[in-house]
Design brief:
Layout: E1 49-50, H1 51-57, H2 63-71, E2 75-77, E3 80-81, E4 88-89, E5 95-97, E6 100-101, E7 110-115, E8 144-145, E9 153-160, H3 163-170, E10 178-185, H4 190-194, E11 200-202, E12 205-207, E13 211-218, E14 221-228, H5 235-242, E15 246-255, E16 258-259, E17 268-271, H6 273-288, H7 307-313
Parallel strand pairs: 9-15
Antiparallel strand pairs: 1-4, 2-3, 2-5, 5-6, 7-9, 7-17, 8-9, 10-14, 10-15, 11-12, 13-14, 15-16
Length: 323
Amino acid sequence: MSPVDSAPVETHADADFDDAPETDAVEAAPKAAPAAKAEPAAPETYEGERIAKAIARAGIASRRDVEAMIAEGRITLNGRVLDTPAINVTDADAITVDGEPLPTRERTRLWIFHKPRGLVTTARDPEGRQTVFEVMPEEMPRVVAIGRLDINTEGLLLLTNDGGLAKVIAHPDTGWLRRYRVRAFGDITQMELDQLRKGVTIDGMEYGPVEATLDRATGDNVWLTLGLREGKNREVKRILEHLGLSVNRLIRLSFGPFQLGDLEVGLTEEIKTKVLKEQLGKGLSAQAGVDFESPVREPIAPFGAPKKEAQAERPRRDEAPRG
């Protein structure tokens, strides 16, 4: 089964992807006598892009994680340690992370990972639980996850080396359908599930329309297929709990045009550049600022560790945990 659905993808414009310059609000002064009209001030322009965005595009970490790294003093700009992410950079600036130069940008790439249960979707887990990034194959470059799956949720997780692409795909305005296979304890009818087509409000939280199908009942459980476009935190579980069901297994089958198919648990599969370009279309490609022209670089070592030492510390691929 192919990991990509050939159906065209709808694109939605979004004006909130780029970081806008921040301005401080100023209270209006009391009216004074009319004065000579002054020429309007020229709008201030900002060259380049915010540093967190630039580092995210290099596949180092998400923008949020980059901001945390700046707060920890791990990033320098032109030889000086940064203490704020509110700064723009260009290609002429020298950026280092943990003392290592920022890698040159490579071609935008996308992978499907069949996430097993028991892994967390985060770069570092404060509880010491194993992360999805710790089981990646050795040849994988540095990647970020597009959205997150709970520790006990299985199935399709999209990974990319382009932070801009991750932000656009995960944004609610992009509207890509996420489809799930669900096993839940309890009883439900198709008529009850059909009410979700209009959306539902739970404890003041509004959830958009949900496509829900009752597939079959087995003992005390029911199997459902759900499709939704928002991806809010624990959305599937909260909606089904609202209907009196208790979810005990959750598998993501697809995200937009990308399908889990028959990819084995714990394995990754790269989407070909041609397919990715076609599925994104011009609209989403422009919003994400993707790069389909640059070469593919060799895998880089974790920051702060020499490449040979880093490779020696990593488990062999055939010794990696299996889901």
